[in-house]
Design brief:
By secondary structure, this protein is α+β, with helices and mostly antiparallel strands. About 50% of the residues lie in helices and about 20% in strands. It has two domains: about 160 residues, Chondroitinase Ac, Chain A, domain 3 (Sandwich); about 270 residues, Rhopdopsin 7-helix transmembrane proteins (Up-down Bundle).
């Protein structure tokens, strides 16, 4: 206990010491609460605290006549301990209960130890899970549930475990089976719709590039948009193949599907980053920009860089079958993806990579919005005087820069279910949004398309040159 904090009396640590005879004829009952700590059961008001039930089997297996039972209640919020890396679940009342009997470790009990955690009505979208702290998990330790059975109730949850250690009740954000199936159905249907409109958008881009004469800057923009939409099409196709074949695919085929899906996802993120870089060059560095074979070099980065990442991930064996399941081990779906043993690869290459791209693109979006508003205020851009068109251009840029993907960071916690629906729906409609944005913004209805991005860029260049 001294190693937990450095001195004997620590705020948030409450301990009960009991000397129990080996010849005990009844089970030992102890009460605990986050505020009062552990105590004998008859001194605690009924219903206000949790309970610990120690079976007689524990004491009969010990060699000494008298053993010391140590029950410790810790407030981990005050200690800053027992926090797993990338932990998304909440610890009930920030309370961890440690139980020690004698000097040796006790495990493999036929009659389990029972801990009853008292609580009010739990929030929607969370599932209670009985866990214990395993110092050998990962680099800093983590929570495990093996050997423990969870029996949830309205006002209390009973944890039955076959060993003694530090226990707690985790509140995991989890989708129930029906909600998960509904989200998967929406995602599957949305992928089909997104693929159809991606084809329409690519055909429209090719048509207007061949039919109308645009300046070089706009032609580069169209080529950039064409590659982004193409990567979205491939991602949706890879997802449909993955969800359709992963449950019965050969392990080597599953690894290939996982790598393909990961590659398409990274391509989307990379092209979103290149869209942000292009907007930065056009609206911030508006003069003196000439890069030979510019679009070809962008394609080399957009399609080539993900190959390196996927290659490294494949060499270390990151790909395989990934099972999505609820806390009670109900299988929701089988996918070919980054395996559970290599989730760090997912956090770095997907979450971390997109997080950096999102921050950069939103900064660029802010600059572009500020410049567009300043031009509109001077009356230079006549085509943007209609409020609906201003909103449409902003929404199109928002989708183009991948802002809807940022909702994935909000799918953790008690609000995960509505965020899952919103994330799935908006990204399914992303192809439709981009198609409508392209048609209205780029299709020339008059001789001078003063509502297009090319006009803003030309005017911004002229204004900057005149000021210099």
């Amino acid at each position: 206990l001294l190693q937990l904090g450095g001195h004997k009396w620590l705020a948030g640590l409450k301990t009960l010491l009991l000397n129990v005879s080996r010849a005990v004829t009844r089970d030992v009952l102890i009460a605990f609460s986050p505020t009062a700590g552990p105590s004998r059961l008859n001194t605690t008001e009924k219903g206000k605290a949790g309970k610990i039930h120690l079976p007689r089997e524990i004491f009969r297996s010990l060699s000494s006549r008298t053993v010391r039972v140590v029950v410790t209640v810790l407030n981990i919020q005050q200690f800053g301990m027992f926090k797993e890396v990338n932990q998304t679940a909440q610890v009930l009342d920030n309370t961890v209960v440690g139980i020690t009997v004698g000097e040796s470790s006790i495990s493999g009990l036929q009659n389990p130890v029972q801990l009853t955690f008292a609580h009010g009505e739990l929030p929607q979208g969370v599932t209670p899970q009985c866990v214990f702290w395993d110092p050998s998990k990962g680099q800093a330790g983590g929570w495990r549930s093996s050997g423990c059975v969870t029996q949830p109730g309205d006002k209390r949850t009973v944890c039955s475990c076959d060993h003694l250690t530090f226990f707690t009740l985790l509140l995991n954000p989890a989708l129930d089976g029906s909600t998960a199936k509904a989200v998967m159905a929406v995602a599957t249907a949305g992928c089909g719709v997104a693929m159809a409109f991606s084809i329409f958008t690519m055909a429209f881009c090719i048509f207007i590039r061949c039919r109308f004469r645009f300046e070089e800057t706009v032609r580069i923009n169209l080529g950039l948009h064409l590659n982004l939409v193409g990567s979205l099409f491939l991602l949706n196709l890879a997802f449909l193949l993955n969800s359709g074949l992963s449950g019965r695919a050969h392990p080597s085929t599953c690894r290939f599907l996982a790598g393909l899906t990961h590659y398409c996802l990274l391509c989307c993120f990379t092209w979103m980053a290149l869209e942000g870089c292009q907007l930065y060059l056009l609206f911030v560095k508006v003069l003196g920009i000439y890069i030979p074979h510019y679009l070809g070099k962008l394609c080399l980065v957009g399609w080539g860089f993900p190959v390196l990442v996927v290659g490294v991930a494949g060499v270390i064996g990151s790909y395989g079958e990934y099972i999505i399941q609820t806390v009670d081990h109900q299988v929701i779906a089988h996918l070919c993806w980054i395996t559970s043993k290599h989730l760090l690869v997912h956090y770095i290459t997907n979450c971390g990579y997109f997080g950096l791209i999102f921050l950069f693109n939103m900064a660029v979006f802010g600059v572009v919005t500020q410049k567009s508003c300043s031009l509109q205020g001077t009356g230079a851009v006549q085509g943007y005087r209609k409020p609906w068109k201003v909103a449409l251009v902003a929404a199109g840029l928002f989708c183009l820069l991948g802002a809807t993907w940022a909702l994935a960071f909000l799918t953790y916690g008690i609000s995960s279910t509505p965020m899952f629906y919103l994330f799935t729906l908006l990204n399914s409609l992303q192809g439709i949004f981009i198609f409508i944005w392209f048609v209205i913004l780029y299709y020339p209805k008059t001789k001078e398309t003063s509502g297009s991005l090319s006009y803003i860029i030309r005017h911004d260049k002229t204004t900057t040159a005149s000021q210099d």
